[in-house]
Amino acid sequence: xxxxxxxxxxxxxxxxxxxxxxxxxxxxxxxxxxxxxxxxxxxxxxxxxxxxxxxxxxxxxxxxxxxxxxxxxxxxxxxxxxxxxxxxxxxxxxxxxxxxxxxxxxxxxxxxxxxxxxxxxxxxxxxxxxxxxxxxxxxxxxxxxxxxxxxxxxxxxxxxxxxxxxxxxxxxxxxxxxxxxxxxxxxxxxxxxxxxxxxxxxxxxxxxxxxxxxxxxxxxxxxxxxxxxxxx
Length: 232
Description:
The chain has two domains: 123 residues, 3-Layer(aba) Sandwich (Cobalt-precorrin-4 Transmethylase, domain 1), CATH 3.40.1010; 101 residues, Methyltransferase, Cobalt-precorrin-4 Transmethylase, Domain 2 (2-Layer Sandwich). It has 232 residues and is an alpha/beta fold. The mean pLDDT is 95. Strand 2, helix 2 and strand 3 form a beta-alpha-beta unit. Keywords: Cobalamin biosynthesis, Methyltransferase, S-adenosyl-L-methionine, Transferase.
């Protein structure tokens, strides 16, 4: 039986690919990945040089916008093509930025493939740990709980989720920066918070939250805010 591999390729730096990921990539028969409408793929740019020249590519081109119709259509089409290759006895490797199951694109394919599919997930270095490493900041200590939130939540939901939290990582900041900053301020978590922009990429930046708020062009989607409640 053919295998569907969900391979985490890490947050951007190709040196953060795991040895297992490289081994699977180097023998891939068919590779699939999300891309923008022009066919550009961050995941492919990270892992592409490990792929055989003979590998077939399934490009799941989509608009990266809040409206999910384009993404759903791309995943539907990609899943059909993947299922056909698996039925023909070919292994398929799906590339996923970061980790496949932490806000990962691979998770959207899982419910779309046949239930009898043999699946192997190869964990990747996540943006969460990469941002903490870039900022040289512990995510949590001792018995502190750590909350992970998407910045795309409505403002009221962010405020409720942050109430009483000791430490938080806010993913996918982008155009939601001001809303997230206000919620952190209200929750008493803004002091010392940092915004990590494009962690592990050559243009990576680590900014105190006030500096991030004053960037003329805002911050990109691939930004994360790390905050911990000050010690009493």
